[in-house]
Amino acid sequence: MPEDQAESNIPIIIMSAKKSDTDKIIGLGIGADDYVTKPFSPGELVARIKAQLRRFKHLSVQKEPESIIRFPGLEINLKEYTVHGDGRVVELSAKEFQLLAFMAANKGQVFTKEQLLENVWGYQHVGDTNTITVYVRKLREKIETNPSEPRFIKTVWGIGYKFDGGSQ
């Protein structure tokens, strides 16, 4: 089974005329959550769908991503769009916040300027990669104690940037 399907929470119900135990075992084995054979009553199908949707809703609520990303000296609240640095509120534009949140959520991963444009500004944004340089400089001025020696957003020479989580 492909890796992306193995971790999906989307409920899958197979409806089939094949009634043998082998067919049911194969269907459930390849990832189905339920197996209904024909003929079936509409009431039974609706009940099975509702049961799967209840299970899906329960799993979705449990797997909600963390809404606050914390590092020593920096706290990013994804739900409230707020940032606190060294105990003070940091005022950021929407794009500055999105760039910071994206990089912090992917701590340690190195991104090229093109990748940051694609992931934060979107495919439709046609822009100069210098946009990233300007935004990183602004972010450093706002979140770093000493922007010339950044703790959080590090330059990876010749490649791009990475969020380092506050280590020196």
Automatic annotation (TrEMBL):
Keywords: DNA-binding, Phosphoprotein, Transcription, Transcription regulation, Two-component regulatory system. One of its GO terms (cellular component) is protein-DNA complex. Residues 66-165 form the OmpR/PhoB-type domain. PANTHER family: PHOSPHATE REGULON TRANSCRIPTIONAL REGULATORY PROTEIN PHOB, REGULATOR OF RPOS. It holds the Pfam family Response_reg. This is DNA-binding response regulator. It is found in: Cytoplasm. Residues 66-165 bind DNA. GO terms for biological process: regulation of DNA-templated transcription. Residues 1-53 form the Response regulatory domain. The lineage of its organism: Bacteria, Bacillati, Bacillota, Bacilli, Bacillales. CDD domains: trans_reg_C. GO terms for molecular function: phosphorelay response regulator activity; transcription cis-regulatory region binding. The keyword Mitochondrion does not apply.
